[in-house]
């Protein structure tokens, strides 16, 4: 099974979680690629005006893990723009995760992860799990660990 981890990360937090997921799933024996979505102007707040610079292909993956930061209590505009234009995800399973600064998921993260799940579902993916890492929460390491282990458990069902 080929797993693609496709993320947007502006300051490295989401990337660090993605690297831990990659390590864990690679150790479990899967073929895992980590790819980043980037934009010409990372600070453009309007997804419809964003020009994407790197646009990962999803076709070669059986399983997708999407990660992004919360921006303004929403899914980051760059990830919104990416998921809007991405090809069909029909027949693929997906896991979504977000990172946010605030300590609790109801401070924007829940809304943002809901947007990400809806965007994936609208492209035909079956979203099997979703998680949020609250970066300023003292239990951050445990939250990251929970997402990593959940990814291993879910992908393990299809091994
Ligand atoms: C433009 C912008 C808006 C943000 N808005 C929020 C927000 O609404 N709520 C929140 O908890 N964190 C917010 N953050 C913080 C990021 O979500 C958080 O630091 C995240 O972990 C960054 O991930 P990254 O390092 O992968 O880019 C914002 C950051 C930026 C740059």
TrEMBL record:
Gene3D superfamilies to which the protein is assigned, alphabetical: 3.40.50.360
Top-rank taxon: Bacteria
InterPro entries tied to this protein: Flavodoxin/NO_synth, Flavoprotein-like_sf
Domain Flavodoxin-like: from-to ranges: 3-159
Name of the protein this chain belongs to: Flavodoxin
Listed GO MF terms: FMN binding; oxidoreductase activity, acting on NAD(P)H
């Amino acid at each position: 099974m080929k797993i693609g981890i496709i993320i947007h990360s502006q300051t490295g937090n989401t990337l660090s979680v993605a690297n831990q997921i990659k390590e864990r799933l690679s150790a479990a024996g899967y073929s895992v690629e980590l790819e980043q979505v980037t934009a010409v102007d990372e600070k453009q707040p309007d997804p419809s005006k964003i020009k994407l610079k790197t646009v990962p292909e999803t076709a070669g993956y059986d399983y997708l893990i999407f990660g992004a930061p919360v921006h303004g209590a929403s899914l980051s505009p760059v990830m919104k723009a990416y998921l809007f234009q991405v090809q069909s995800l029909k027949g693929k399973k997906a896991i979504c995760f977000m990172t946010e600064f605030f300590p609790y998921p109801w401070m924007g993260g829940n809304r943002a992860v809901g947007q990400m799940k809806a965007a994936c579902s609208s492209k035909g993916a079956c979203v099997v799990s979703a998680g949020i890492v609250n970066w300023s929460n003292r239990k951050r390491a445990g939250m990251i660990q929970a997402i990593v282990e959940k990814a291993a458990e879910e992908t393990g069902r299809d091994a």
